[in-house]
Specification:
Crypto/Photolyase_FAD-like_sf; Rossmann fold; single chain; 3 domains; alpha/beta; FAD; binds flavin-adenine dinucleotide; 413 residues; Serine Threonine Protein Phosphatase 5, Tetratricopeptide repeat; DNA Cyclobutane Dipyrimidine Photolyase, subunit A, domain 3; 19 helices; seven-stranded mixed beta sheet
Length: 413
């Protein structure tokens, strides 16, 4: 279903554009199986930024008036909202990581019921079919994700963290913020006390009668947790120190060097230059690296690995400094491998697209220390899209949604 290239992403966007207006607002909640055209299937591309949120919204707005495509634009902003929220509440991610780690350290903590559920043997036909679809394709429709999470937590009474981990290891669009916070939302943790209950009637209606499960929980009790620390502020953007030989390192959170240049005041991706004060420094080398295994202590699916690998190759094929200086795909995501690349290229600085809270941000923190110990600097470039929107994701989505017209305006859209 998903070819991991920017060209395939642009084709998918083009094919979906006619449906992104009123049709989407009316039909988006239906999941009528593999042939669905009522949703975009763009999330694996957006999640790796083979396509950017800005260009998707720009293309939709070029085709439809805002009142007609408002619903679709809002959905794209849900992705941005979740990221901005997690950025200000990183303890939620740290706890999730710790708890998942604890489950996988102790075999007894992972029950036989868990293994039945992820093996497609829960005894609930719909769940078993969705497990197969997720494992085979790396994708599930949004409404189906909601039903799945609700049945997992309230009917099968399995730990939400392991459900989120199962999704994260199999979804091509697996995303620290959207995934963790959506599972928390279903469980009644994200909006404290407010749960999502999947009902047989709703499932039957929106799957056009494909599924009508029996025996589902008919009530929910919201999960609880220790109070969270107060919100942190979003870290201030890095400043570029005086540097001479700079390398650009792409990673799986952001694989479009060209638009990074249009989206950041210092970086001109067309001439491969970084502007520092009044002068400009050449970007002399580019590389790309990723490690989908960072998503979980348990095994990440081969489908996710293959998609990430393909996306990396595709990004590298577009990111070379010149025909004679193509980008390098690094063989792994170890700091020592990046250091070797930097040494070969005689770099004194590495710039990277900023990564939101999640495994890549953790990996970049380790890399920053490793580079510093060898006298190299690392500077992150935050896209304008994120820098403008994230600070507004401090409360609920409905307050954030009010800011969308102003955010579009600031983006020139
Ligand atoms: C339990 C659960 C787990 C989820 N895990 C992830 C995840 O790991 N990664 C992920 O990208 N999305 C996740 N989502 C959100 C959503 O289900 C997917 O983004 C969406 O289904 C992707 O399909 P699409 O591109 O066809 O969506 P469309 O309906 O065509 O929407 C267009 C775009 O808007 C964004 N979007 C739409 N709905 C949401 C949403 N509810 N939250 C955030 N962004 C949204 C996506 O970028 C999507 O590509 C999760 C939702 C739930 C309920």
């Amino acid at each position: 279903m998903f070819t991991p290239t920017r060209a395939a992403a642009l084709d998918a966007l083009e094919g979906f554009l006619p449906h992104a207006g009123r049709d989407y607002a009316r039909d988006r909640n239906h999941d009528n199986g593999f042939e669905r055209t009522n949703v975009s299937h763009l999330s694996p591309y957006l999640r790796h930024r083979l396509l950017t949120e800005r260009e998707v919204v720009a293309a939709v707005l070029a085709r439809h008036r805002l009142p007609d495509c408002e619903k679709f634009v809002q959905e794209v902003f849900w992705r941005t909202y979740w990221k901005g929220w997690l950025e200000q509440n990183p303890e939620v991610w740290r706890r999730y990581r710790r708890e998942v780690g604890e489950f996988w350290l102790d075999d007894d903590a992972v029950s036989a019921d868990y293994h039945h559920a992820v093996g497609g043997r829960s005894g609930i036909e719909a769940m078993d079919a969705w497990v197969t679809e997720l494992v085979d394709t790396g994708y599930l429709h949004n409404h189906t994700r909601m039903w799945f999470a609700s049945i997992w937590i309230f009917t099968l009474r399995l730990p939400w963290q392991l459900g989120a981990d199962f999704f994260y290891r199999h979804l091509l669009d697996g995303d620290a913020a959207s995934n963790t916070l959506s599972w928390r939302w279903v469980a009644g943790l994200q909006t404290a006390g407010k749960t999502y209950l999947a009902t047989a009637e709703n499932i039957s209606r929106y799957t056009d009668g494909r599924f009508a499960p029996t025996g589902l929980a008919t009530s929910t009790r919201a999960l609880t947790e220790d109070p969270l620390p107060s919100r942190s502020t979003i870290p201030v953007a890095d400043q570029l120190p005086p540097v001479h030989r700079v390398g650009l390192l792409l990673h799986e959170e952001d694989l479009d060097a060209a638009s990074l240049g249009h989206d950041h005041p210092w970086f001109d991706s067309e001439v491969h230059e970084l502007k520092t004060g009044h002068s400009a420094v050449d970007v002399v080398a580019t590389a790309a690296y990723a490690d989908p295994a960072d998503r979980s202590p348990a095994r990440v699916s081969d489908t996710v690995r293959a998609f990430t690998e393909g996306a990396l190759e595709d990004a590298a094929s577009r990111a070379g400094v010149s025909a004679a200086r193509p980008a390098t795909v690094l063989p792994d995501a170890l700091a020592s491998t990046v250091l070797r690349w930097a040494e070969t290229e005689r770099l004194d600085a590495v710039v990277v697209p900023a990564a939101p809270v999640g495994p890549v941000q953790e990996r970049l923190a380790t890399l920053r220390s490793a580079l510093a110990s060898e006298g190299l600097t690392m500077t992150t470039l935050t896209r304008r899209w994120d820098a403008l929107a994230w600070p507004h994701a401090s409360r609920g989505f409905f307050a954030f949604r009010e800011r969308i017209p102003a955010l579009l305006n600031q983006q020139g859209l």
